[in-house]
Specification:
- By secondary structure, the protein is mostly helical.
- The chain has one domain (4-77, 90-123): lambda repressor-like DNA-binding domains (434 Repressor (Amino-terminal Domain), Orthogonal Bundle).
- It has helices at residues 4-19, 24-31, 35-43, 50-59, 83-86, 95-106, 109-122, 126-131.
- Helix 1 crosses helix 3 (35-43) and helix 2 crosses helix 3.
- The longest helix has 16 residues, at 4-19.
- The chain is globular.
Length: 132
């Protein structure tokens, strides 16, 4: 039976895999399981052992702590602390977001910095929004 923690870890696994543009088959091949097993991990149907979590973290280029970030001590998702956490939980799973992130990281450092500065400059200041 899936617990809240299993489901949370599975969602983090799916988010990172998709962010890197990997299919379930790609990831499965890297860690030595079938893609069906990745499916079960991602939906929380199967629990992930410590050694498998380590392998998944290595394949996804993250520390295993990544899978638990944002999880409260009681095993529930921690309340949102900043603007990024308030966004939809699956925003990083959206195709448009993934395409944007991939394109961003294909840029060299200087254009990336300039694009980030531009995006920040375009943000609406809450004080300006009230004045409108």
């Amino acid at each position: 039976m899936a617990t809240d923690v299993d489901i949370y870890v599975g969602k983090r696994l799916r988010r990172r895999r998709r962010l890197l543009g990997l299919t379930q088959q790609d990831l499965a091949g890297q860690v030595g399981v079938r893609f069906q097993q990745i499916q079960k991990y991602e939906c929380g149907a199967n629990r992930i052992t410590a050694s498998r979590l380590f392998s998944l973290g290595t394949a996804l280029n993250v520390n295993i702590n990544y899978f638990f970030e944002g999880l409260a001590p009681d095993g529930k998702q921690a309340p949102a602390n900043d603007q990024a956490d308030r966004l939809s939980g699956d925003i990083l799973s959206q195709k448009e977001t993934l395409e944007l992130v991939r394109a961003y990281y294909r840029l060299s450092e200087r254009p990336r910095r300039r694009l980030l500065d531009l995006a920040k400059a375009l943000e609406v200041d809450p004080a300006d929004a009230v004045a409108s």
